[in-house]
Design a protein that fits this description.
The chain is built from 13 helices and 13 strands. By secondary structure, the protein is of the alpha+beta class. α11 links the parallel β8 and β9. The two termini are 25 Å apart.
Length: 417
């Protein structure tokens, strides 16, 4: 098996609090539109947090998703199938008979940090109130966190490797990185890679809030505050992000549009604490350095964009800043960095893939999305976090890093096509 195969991106898809397709998403994040608002999907009277990044005006029919399927599935699966539909449509890949890819060479690496949380919540409530006989026969195959990948494979006739990743907030960054390696080393010619999450339910809000992770800000438009001295925690959000990764020669032979090249991946663990990041940034920086080294990053020649994990928690933002300085040295001060979570909130297992899409679009369009509401920068976070307004820059390379509960660190690197 060759390890010199090049890997490119030929399709992207998103469902987010700032847009349910890539075009709307990009327009809104470059214009600094905040998708965080008061929760509308359930009463919040008894909850300590009343804001989130909810997906709005989502219509499954727009993605050729049948009403019975949408009704029976957990939202995380429906979001995943929708984003994968958009990504595959853009890529032009088709594994049907007479199509342009062998179904056994098309894989799916799609994960979720939590999986079918709504289904689990509802069926547990039924079990306690009404007893075992009322539990849905679809409970297990709609709750398990691999089922989004399974449904995407079914819909796209993807008979190749199918590996759902579960690494909390690093899930979809790892999914993309592992898919990149699968193609690079010859195990697939294309992979639908990404993540999906729909954990914004009362139990999810209560759990994260009681773990002291969530912002308790009352103003939803000034709640997700990455790298801001006023930050007080992250804002829960939902959505999905998908990339179609494809071997370069395969994409070229069929005349596909190449959006970017995947050129590096790093994966480490803090081995420190179940929720808190390692404060010195050493293990986080190792993942970043790995991805940049594999990508052939040259601090003198390259113009770098970093889509930061940037959750807006006190510990994350300071340790992440240290990690960039350790990985890049003086070049950290030249990098263009932003946290798009300032607008979307934190989509947990979907965050890395959505932010990878933002990174690819930044490269493609030469625009650095802003970190909105950065009106009081933390002195410890003293890098160029692109405050408040998007900037034009002739970017050549981009990285997106994700840092998850359990100490999971992932970073993927892209080069301009």
């Amino acid at each position: 098996m060759s390890n010199t195969r090049r890997v490119v991106v030929t399709g992207t898809g998103v469902v987010t609090p700032v847009g349910n397709n890539v075009e709307t998403f990009w327009k809104n994040i470059t214009n600094g539109v905040c998708g965080i608002d008061y929760i509308t999907q359930f009463p919040t009277d008894d909850l300590p947090v009343k804001i989130a990044g909810e997906v709005k005006d989502f219509n499954p029919a727009d993605y050729e998703i049948e009403a019975p399927f949408a009704r029976k599935q957990d939202k995380f699966t429906v979001f995943a199938v929708a984003a994968a539909y958009e990504a595959m449509k853009q890529s032009g890949l088709n594994s049907a008979e007479g199509g342009n890819i062998d179904p056994f060479r098309l894989g799916v690496y799609v994960g979720s940090g939590i999986g079918g949380f709504s289904v689990q919540y509802k069926e547990t409530e039924k079990m306690i109130k009404d007893g075992a006989k009322w539990i849905s026969p679809l409970f297990i195959p709609t709750m398990i966190s691999n089922i989004a990948a399974g449904n995407i494979a079914i819909r796209n006739n993807a008979c190749g490797p199918c590996v759902p990743v579960v690494t909390a907030c690093a899930t979809s960054t790892h999914a993309i990185g592992e898919a990149y390696r699968a193609i690079k080393h010859g195990y697939a010619d294309a992979v639908i890679a990404g993540g999906s999450e729909a954990a914004t339910i009362p139990l999810g809000i209560a759990g994260f809030a009681n773990a002291k992770a969530l912002s308790k800000a009352e103003d939803p438009k000034y709640a997700s505050l990455p790298f801001n001295a006023n930050r007080g925690g992250f804002v829960m959000a939902e959505g999905a992000g998908m990339l179609v990764l494809e071997e370069y020669e395969h994409a070229k032979a069929r005349g596909a549009e190449i959006l970017a090249e995947v050129c590096g991946y790093g994966n480490t663990c803090d081995a420190h604490h179940v929720t808190a990041p390692r404060p010195d940034g050493v293990t986080q920086s190792a993942a970043i350095r790995m991805s940049l080294e594999e990508a052939g990053f040259d601090a003198e020649k390259d113009t770098l964009y970093i889509n930061a994990h940037g959750t807006g928690t006190a510990l994350n933002d300071s340790s992440e800043t240290k990690a960039y300085k350790l990985a890049l040295g003086d070049a950290a001060y030249k990098a263009h960095i932003s946290s798009t979570k300032s607008m979307t909130g934190h989509m947990l297992g979907a965050a890395g893939a959505v932010e990878a899409v933002a990174s690819i679009l930044a490269l493609k369009n030469g625009i650095v999305p802003p970190t909105i509401n950065l009106d009081a920068p933390d002195p410890e976070c003293d890098l160029n976090y692109t405050p408040n307004k998007a900037e034009n820059a002739e970017l050549t390379i981009a990285i997106s890093d994700s840092l998850g509960f359990g100490g999971h660190n992932g970073c993927v690197a892209f080069r301009k096509a």
